[in-house]
Amino acid sequence: MPAHCINRRLALAQRDGQAAKKEKEALYADPQWRKDNYIINRDSAGANPYFALQKLMWGNKRFVEGKSIHPRQDADVINTLSKGQAPFATIVGCSDSRVSAEILFDQGFGDLFVTRTAGQVMAQASYGTIEFASGVLGTKLIVVLGHSYCGAVDAAIKLPENPPGHVVTLINSIKPATKRYFGISENLLDFAVKQTLSTK
């Protein structure tokens, strides 16, 4: 394709992108739209853990209902955040590729301070990360995000022989939490998750 055609297409895409951004900003400012889409002010969420939790829950509600708005997910936000960050919540999650906090809670860049390890197994660095989020960045809410079909918990239940490398450390950290449920349910993995996590 000739260079002038490529440049024209890029210019049109940029123009359309700017128009879409203005339209999006106008939509976000509409009180009725904010009410219909469960929007909580970001400043309120940063100042009060109750509102922070509500913001996460309503973001998840949007995700579940197929109404995700993908806020604060453009290059302009990243440029602004180069001056500093002020996340409103800390998320302790699993490394599982199916549980990305920003997507599940429909949040954007700079909203969540996230630490992830397989099975949410805590280590010294994890504690330091949480303390940094709370003590330095000022997050008022800490959420431990569990999920169904966790491979790390499943491994701790099945107790495979000779797991590779440091995986044995991971399994040994999870085993005590699963032992109490042996013999109670045929679907032990699902039962253990439901018993140890709030699924409201």
UniProtKB/TrEMBL annotation:
Coiled coil: none
EC number: 4.2.1.1
InterPro entries reported in the protein's UniProt record: Carbonic_anhydrase, Carbonic_anhydrase_CS, Carbonic_anhydrase_sf
Cofactor section: Zn(2+)
Main enzyme class: lyase
Signal sequence, start to end: none
GO biological process, one term: carbon utilization
UniProt GO molecular function: carbonate dehydratase activity; zinc ion binding
Sequence positions that bind Zn(2+): C94, D96, H147, C150
Co-factor remark: Binds 1 zinc ion per subunit.
Catalysed reaction, written as an equation: hydrogencarbonate + H(+) = CO2 + H2O
Gene3D superfamilies, sorted: Carbonic anhydrase (3.40.1050.10)
SMART domains: Pro_CA
Keywords of this entry: Lyase, Metal-binding, Zinc
Family stated for the protein in its record: Belongs to the beta-class carbonic anhydrase family.
PANTHER family: CARBONIC ANHYDRASE, CARBONIC ANHYDRASE 2
The protein, known as: carbonic anhydrase
